[in-house]
């Protein structure tokens, strides 16, 4: 059977400002929380001092080299590119009344370059970063004031780019705040669950206010949420394992329930009660939350298992989440289990739950690529990974799931989020830079570059089942 995808299906890749742009203090940009995590999401928070170095300070220098990169994306046939706006380029401290024009102008140039090649922008408002000024002066998302700062930022960029950007996302992997609170909500590691959930609540209200603003300012626009798709399976069919799996999946589905359904689900009331937590939710908050997203976007890299058996409950640290390994799956060299069928399962679960269009905005394989003597990079393992996942996306479409598009993570090599390293490469395009920051930044096409171009050209018909 042909694996041809619908003609309107959007094909492309996804990047994040803090992992590709570099130019970390250029043109008036302020310090972001990402700038204070030189070793990545799992590393310590470090104050910046003049003359110090972080790998993300230059990253792949996308800030200056985006025309070259956009040309390569166009060569692959991209019809969409997911990127993010660095909030600190627009409001360096986060709480200013007026935006930084130089930052706004940069994204004008970027979106104009995309338009030149017919590449549709899909823009995330906050992707694993926020202004450090808000953290230092206001306590990050722990402060209700941050809702207003974010709404001002969102309205500013919606107004500026309303004719250039029609697809928006609010917060990247919003459920990740449970596992990395500084990255997600600007709270220190070790913060109480009460404090984290209160900050998350403020973020959910801000997300809904951004949705409302988008609908007002860009009537023909669409705005979605973005979930880390951390689907878990029960390790056994014991009823206790089934119930524990239900509860752990709800930990992340809760975010989708609020953003798509417009209210806190009933199960969260018991969750808070059992833990003695009281979240301050005002009557105005409840009204604000009723403004819901137009579509659901998500990342998908792996699944994991859940068990109530203490002896078997040996968790592997992988992709921010602690998951029990699945004995039926193989793993990448970073310990991420590879489960293409899990993507189809997740897509069906989300569509059954919400009945709104889905957008797969991250999926990919991090690996150590080798440059051969002739300059080629034969990343057949990446081709196999993406091929097998796209086959399952097609199966989900055949199941009746409405899917807007697919943007694989890191179409060009970038700084990894978890540990801020270059050796873990995702791209179809190789970038000559190493973990110490050495290299020419030269771009080079990998074998997967030509393979993905063919997939796009044939609308998926070239995929191998």
TrEMBL record:
The keyword Oxidoreductase does not apply. GO terms for biological process: carbohydrate catabolic process. InterPro entries: GH, GH_1_N_CS, Glyco_hydro_1, Glyco_hydro_1_AS. It comes from the Bacteria. Signal peptide: none annotated. One of its GO terms (cellular component) is cytosol. Keywords: Glycosidase, Hydrolase. GO terms for molecular function: 6-phospho-beta-glucosidase activity. It is an enzyme of class 3 (hydrolase). PROSITE patterns: GLYCOSYL_HYDROL_F1_1 (PS00572), GLYCOSYL_HYDROL_F1_2 (PS00653). The keyword Hydrolase applies. Its EC number is 3.2.1.86. The active site is at 362 (nucleophile). NCBIfam families: PRK09852.1. Belongs to the glycosyl hydrolase 1 family. This is 6-phospho-beta-glucosidase.
């Amino acid at each position: 059977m042909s694996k041809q995808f619908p003609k309107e299906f959007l094909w492309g890749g996804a990047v994040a400002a803090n992992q590709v742009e570099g130019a970390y203090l250029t043109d008036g940009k302020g310090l972001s929380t990402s700038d204070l995590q030189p070793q990545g999401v799992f590393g310590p928070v470090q104050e910046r001092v003049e003359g110090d170095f972080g790998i993300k300070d230059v990253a792949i220098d996308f800030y200056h080299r985006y025309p070259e990169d956009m040309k390569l994306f166009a060569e692959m046939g991209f019809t969409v590119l997911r990127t993010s706006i660095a909030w600190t380029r627009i409001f360096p401290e986060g709480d200013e009344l007026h935006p930084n024009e130089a930052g706004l102008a940069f994204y004008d140039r970027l979106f104009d370059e995309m338009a030149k090649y017919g590449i549709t922008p899909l823009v995330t408002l906050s992707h694993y970063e926020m202004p450090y000024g808000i953290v230092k002066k206001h306590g990050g998302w722990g402060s209700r004031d941050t809702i207003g700062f974010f709404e001002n930022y969102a309205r500013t960029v919606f107004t500026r780019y309303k004719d250039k950007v029609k697809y928006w996302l609010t917060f990247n992997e919003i459920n990740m705040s449970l596992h990395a609170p500084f990255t997600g909500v600007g709270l220190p590691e070790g913060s109480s669950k009460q404090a984290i959930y209160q900050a998350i609540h403020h973020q959910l209200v801000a997300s809904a206010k951004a949705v409302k603003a988008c609908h007002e300012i860009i009537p023909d626009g669409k705005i979605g949420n973005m979930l880390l798709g951390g689907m878990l399976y029960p390790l056994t069919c014991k009823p206790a394992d089934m119930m524990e799996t239900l509860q752990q999946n709800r930990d992340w589905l809760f975010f989708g329930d609020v953003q798509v359904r417009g209210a806190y689900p009933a199960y969260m009331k018991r969750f808070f009660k059992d833990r003695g937590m009281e979240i301050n939710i005002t009557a105005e908050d409840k009204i604000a939350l009723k403004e819901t997203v137009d579509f659901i976007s998500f990342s998908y890299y792996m699944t994991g298992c859940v068990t109530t058996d203490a002896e078997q409950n040996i968790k592997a640290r992988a992709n921010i989440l602690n998951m029990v390994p699945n004995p039926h799956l193989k793993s990448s060299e970073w310990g991420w289990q590879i489960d293409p069928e899990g993507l189809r399962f997740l897509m069906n679960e989300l569509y059954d739950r919400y009945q709104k269009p889905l957008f797969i905005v991250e999926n990919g394989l991090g690996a150590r690529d080798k440059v051969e003597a002739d300059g080629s990079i034969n990343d057949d393992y990446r081709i196999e990974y993406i091929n097998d996942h796209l086959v399952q996306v097609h199966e989900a479409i055949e199941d009746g799931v409405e899917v807007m598009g697919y943007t694989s993570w890191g179409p060009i090599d970038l700084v990894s989020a978890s540990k801020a390293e270059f050796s873990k490469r995702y791209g179809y395009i190789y970038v000559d830079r190493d973990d110490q920051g050495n290299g020419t930044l030269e771009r080079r096409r990998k074998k997967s570059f030509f393979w993905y171009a063919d997939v796009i050209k044939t609308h998926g018909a070239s995929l191998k089942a």
